[in-house]
Amino acid sequence: MRDIVVLIFLTACIIAALKKPWWGVLSLAVFSYMNPHAYAWGFVRTFPVYYILFLAIIFRTVFAKDKQPIPKDWRVIFFALLWLYFLFTTTQAYMKDIAWQRFWFVSKIFIPLYFTLVLINTREKLYYLIITIGVSIGIVAVKGGIFALATGFGHRVYGPPLTQFEDNNQFAVAMLMIIPLLLVWQKQSPHIWIKKGILFSLPIIYAASLSSWSRGALLTMAMLTLMLTWHSKRKVLVIPLVLIGAFLAKDYLPEEWFGRMNTIETYEQDASAMGRITTWIDGWNHTLEHPFTGAGFEGWQVVSLRDWHSSYVEMFAEHGFVAFGLWLSMIVGSIVSLTFLPQKTRNIDGMEWVGNYCFMIRASIICYMVGTAFLGLAYWDLIYHLVFISVLIKKFALQELSEKIAQQKLKLKSVRSTDNEYAITPS
Description:
2 domains, globular
């Protein structure tokens, strides 16, 4: 039965993509982040669902008129250079067979992002893309949160099968990253029940993240809560709610959970934490010796004894400092752009959306930077999606601002013309 449902949904997505290509971008996001066919039991589970949809979108995009040129943004150039640099380091990798497999895997993540840039050509479409990403992960997160509450946090919550964040630690960070995306929907939606439903789901998602038993997620959660509280216009209400929630969670969480979290302070006594630090040192030392090539994809198998367990170390240890600079520049540059862009549109009627979008996407990116300091997720499609979303926010905001300035100048010119027409000229 599940196979039939997924097959019907796939067919609907293909039809939607053929009708309107940008709907295909939303469909790709659903199959990438929720991975619904992985919940089936029969032939659909191994069916190349994503690639069938991908081919349909390629076909339709070629003939589509409703598209835009790739935005002229330095982050897009850096993204292309990063992919080309991966190609270079793969030719120099220690384990070439494994590295080439990983390179093509990353390429399959990078290439579909092209459609985001050319088919999401209006603010309305961008709004629906943000909602789709948030909901795709949010549905699984709410399901996991209900399970966590029902079982007293006694079991760990895992992500959608066969995704990059299937692991409990990775899924915990993903859940926290999509909370700001859901808040974009909550802020912009005119429907009261959607607003209430999203607010009701947030504590459940927090519960799911706690039940991941992830120490990195706890740090990410603290950062996210701080950012959301700081941004809130109702701090008087939000701060007590946060404190009450923390108090209730303290009495509800099992003792074993606190024992694991306490190792954050006593990391010297934790074999897992010390193993990560040793691996990071190995990666750093190796990169100093090979600053331009690194070890190549999956190079930890040669350089150290375990996986990198850090996106930062993963990037510079596998591809050197040039790739690391390109990668980090895109992320930090997006945060800077999202910080200063709202200042250009402040106090302009109708452009309040810019500040909301910028803060929430920035919060999501910062969650990634904090959470993946302890997880190897340098090639995660979600972060590149967020970078490109920030590119599009800037593009649409500046376009709208330019139009408003032009309208204002035209209106002022019209007023001056009218004043001159009725001016009294002395004889």
